[in-house]
Amino acid sequence: MTSLEYNIGAKIKKLRKARKLTLQDVARETGFSPALISQIENNNVSPPIATLSKIARFFDVKMGHFFEEDEEELRFEVVPKDARRVVSRVISSKGTGHGYTYEALSYRKRNKKMEPFMLTISERAQEETLYNHEGEEFLLILQGRAEILLDDERIVLEAGDAVYFDSSLKHRLLACEGEEVQVLAVVTR
């Protein structure tokens, strides 16, 4: 399932229009270009998790708002492996590929305090732009070797290694050369 099938862009556009904001207003407040906001709204590109988190915070909604379906409140949710929602075509604000896809592991449960994702990093990104946003993150490397950049630190993580950090730290997860990396990521707002 792509961001188009989630209609992430349409949901962002609806939030923006409901608040009578222009693309420039959203861009100015979030730090992204009006062109990128437009591309996201038109489902031409999928926003990285950090970008989506900043947009959600700006509109004062939980990140899960962009993934949930219009259903009643659930007390629990089971997501079979083949029912995960995949978000692909993730690009950076500079328009370059991130080399990863992410799958939402919970999309029916509303008002969650955590957003669990499965990241698959298929290639090392060309650039090393660091991102930060509100909340906390927990990453567990399930397969492969990755390098995490946390402010000025560079730490290599092997399968089985975990890291927990404040998302306000500038951060980026990169695959080590020639490795496909699978990561369980849990993000809070």
Automatic annotation (TrEMBL):
Gene3D superfamilies: Jelly Rolls, lambda repressor-like DNA-binding domains. PROSITE patterns: HTH_CROC1 (PS50943). Signal peptide: none annotated. The keyword Signal does not apply. The keyword Cell cycle does not apply. Residues 12-66 form the HTH cro/C1-type domain. GO terms for molecular function: DNA binding; DNA-binding transcription factor activity. Keywords: DNA-binding. One of its GO terms (cellular component) is cytosol. Transmembrane segments: none annotated. This is Cro/Cl family transcriptional regulator. It comes from Geothermobacter hydrogeniphilus.
